[in-house]
Amino acid sequence: MEAKRFHKAMTFFYSKPVFSAVLIVFPLVLLVIFLSAGASISQRYLLPTPRRIFSPMEWMGKSEIWSVPRLSEWRPCDWWKDQYLLALPERTNGYIRVDCYGGLNQMRRDFCDGVGIARLLNATIVLPKFEAAAYWNETSGFADVFDVDYFIQQMRGFINVLKVVPDELASKEPVRVDCSKRKGPFDYIESVLPSLLEHRYISITPAMSQRRDRYPFYAKVALCQACYKALQLTKSLENKGSKLLAAIPKPFLSLHLRFEPDMVAYSQCEYSGLSPFSKEAIDATRGDRKPWTGDVARTWRKRGKCPLTPKETAFILQALNIPTNTNIYLASGDGLLERDSFTSVYKNVYAKSMLLGDKVLEMHGNTKAALDYYVSIHSDAYVATYFGNMDKMVAAMRAGMGFFENTFP
């Protein structure tokens, strides 16, 4: 009798639309879980300036993939704003300058970490030194990208900030302190503080693997205020960003497509099917960074350490049922490789050079990256092909502004 009931139930399951629905919906749910770190790309389309609200069906088509709830979502984190601030010490232990290297958002991250470290050590933070990099045509400094006076005003009460050190220290360079192996607060107190007290003026580059969760409360507060509230683009860059944003047809998706020669070389990933030009450009940039091979290469790729190619990106966006006529702003660095394999599929692609013309030629790497950042945090949706420093910062800022449409394939 029980066997008959079981057979009847299974016959109903396999013969009715229920089974078909499960076959369709279950893979979609899995795809959303693995491909997305944010909320739905089509739940809301909000910008600071009023404009038409587009429904999910208008833009994204009828795919149900975007309406499936995520298991986890990024949410605004503003706990530090309402907390009681500890009074700053009457005397400073010295002055710290953060020396920043890499791309704009990596330098931004390091500077924010440096603010937390300076507060931890009861030090005064000096405006940072940005690396001058010939590869990116980069000579712009901190003041060329960020509003210095706004930063100082916003950090009042959180940490003391100086544009330049006092006269008795201004004539000499700060003493360089190696922080490559420093991670937690005790590392800095035990190893960096003595040098600060001895020399009074030091420079540091915070270790990449910071344990910010172990910082005391007052140091976390200073770091968060610097990172999320005090760093505002200069008025000139804000104006350029606003003009760029206004010129992009709405609604639009901002795509951070990382496939420049230096990025591919840094990833140490090997790609097949690239054009001879792309291979030559990558090989010329690799230097000592040879591609991974064998099991190491497979593990590296499975961990998401290999940037998606433009062709792979187009394939994934199509798989997510993002229409090929979607307006897409291409947030990418100079020298993007294999671009045609993306634009041959998605036709409505816009970039800085197309919308700003010759004005882009006058800009340096950091200021151009700042425009991509500005447009990306205000876009209707954000997709990143590599979860790097900019992508983490943009997703966090968008969450703070109430924009949750972020996807990281």
TrEMBL record:
GO terms under biological process: fucose metabolic process
Q: Which UniProt keywords apply?
A: Carbohydrate metabolism, Fucose metabolism, Glycoprotein, Glycosyltransferase, Membrane, Signal-anchor, Transferase, Transmembrane, Transmembrane helix
Chief location: membrane
Q: Which InterPro entries match?
A: FucosylTrfase_pln, GDP-Fuc_O-FucTrfase
Please give one Gene Ontology molecular function term for this protein: glycosyltransferase activity
Topology of this chain in the membrane: Single-pass type II membrane protein
Pathway-wise, it operates in: Glycan metabolism
Q: Which domain of life is it from?
A: Eukaryota
Q: Which GO terms describe its cellular component?
A: cytoplasm; membrane
Q: Pfam families from the entry? A: O-FucT
Which cell locations does it reside in? Membrane
Q: Which residues form a coiled coil?
A: none
Q: Which CDD domains match?
A: O-FucT_plant
Sequence similarity: Belongs to the glycosyltransferase GT106 family.
Protein name according to UniProt: O-fucosyltransferase family protein
